[in-house]
Amino acid sequence: MKRCYFDYAATTPVAPEVLEAMLPYFKDRSGNPSAIYAEGQLARQAVEHARASVAGLINARPDEVVFLSGGTEADNMALSGVAAAGCKGRHIITTAIEHHAVLETCHQLEKNGVAVTYLPVDAEGRLDPAEVRQAIRPDTALVSVIMANNEIGTLQDLAEISGITREHGILLHTDAVQAAGRVPVDVQALGVDLLSISAHKLYGPKGVGALYIRKGTRIVPIVWGGGQERGRRSGTENVPGIVGLGKAAETAVSMMASEAARLAALRDKLIAGVLAAVPASRLNGHPSHRLPNNANFSFDHVEGESVCLNLDLEGVSASPGSACSSTSTAPSHVLLALGLPPHQAFGSLRLSLGRWTTEADIDRVLAVLPGIVARLRAMSPFRNQ
Ligand SMILES: *Cc1c(COP(=O)(O)O)cnc(C)c1O
């Protein structure tokens, strides 16, 4: 049976053209980009070519792009690096629905005396920019707001938020790991100063990413050593990975408009089909301000985990809404922030689409999911509550 992969928000397969671009840098072009002889210079040129490609994806200047080990490190560097620079103060504003890479960094910073405000979101996961304005203090150094949430796909209005942060001379960071390559990300139009990207969410390899740092932004490195990446991120460059990220960025630029439209149509068919066929189901996140590839559902009185295990037996790969915490059974902090009661927050399912999702895959989910939920409900001790 052909597997139906519905977890592109967790990771995307490496695209064939990306793998093809990377292979030479594992073989005959394996020089160290810092070396002055020919092999080193070949690697250096490849890294700089990739830098221009990533800059092109987000409308930045190449020298504003720093390569590092992924989205997690980019988020860590943005927050810790600005806090350490200590220009304006020791207060950070963020939201209750950030990725753990931001939230856990905030928790660590709090232990070191940084004050953090976690803003609430509405029932559809949107942050009201007025909340940002109200939370600003004289010592606020940074606002960090996730551009597209990884669980529910809700998109935030960063341009409006940056209008406020700029008025107050405060830096704005966004985790754009889910957004980059799926929706237009333009650092000028958004007005952000720092932006995180991860290659393996846009058909590149795992273990490589980028942080956009607007020229003139004061930020202290978190990884120290040989001074690579113009002193901002030490360590010998992951040349094949960087080349893969660059190629993935180029492909995203050329495919984005058509892919976004194709996926949004499939997503809408999936959402309408599930809501019609599964009683006591709801869509989590915003109906229109959402990623074209994300659908997140709650089913009353069933566990998302059990739904996923049963889908797996039917050849469908998906995540419980509380993804990334498959080892914990706590309900997702994102769904709780929407105000979902625990019996809905536990029973959530994220189906995320991508380049190889077809209409047949959607039909397959619609054929098996209603029966799975009905079976689990019939066994549930909570069904009469
Ligand atoms: C996946 C993800 C990350 C982490 O990126 P890695 O490259 O896996 O470290 C950060 N933020 C969001 C929103 C993500 O989806």
UniProtKB/TrEMBL annotation:
It holds the Pfam family Aminotran_5. Residues 5-365 form the Aminotransferase class V domain. Its cofactor is pyridoxal 5'-phosphate. It catalyses: (sulfur carrier)-H + L-cysteine = (sulfur carrier)-SH + L-alanine. Its EC number is 2.8.1.7. InterPro entries: Aminotrans_V_dom, Aminotrans_V_PyrdxlP_BS, Cys_deSase_NifS_bac/arc, Cysteine_dSase, PyrdxlP-dep_Trfase, PyrdxlP-dep_Trfase_major, PyrdxlP-dep_Trfase_small. It is an enzyme of class 2 (transferase). Belongs to the class-V pyridoxal-phosphate-dependent aminotransferase family. NifS/IscS subfamily. This is Cysteine desulfurase.
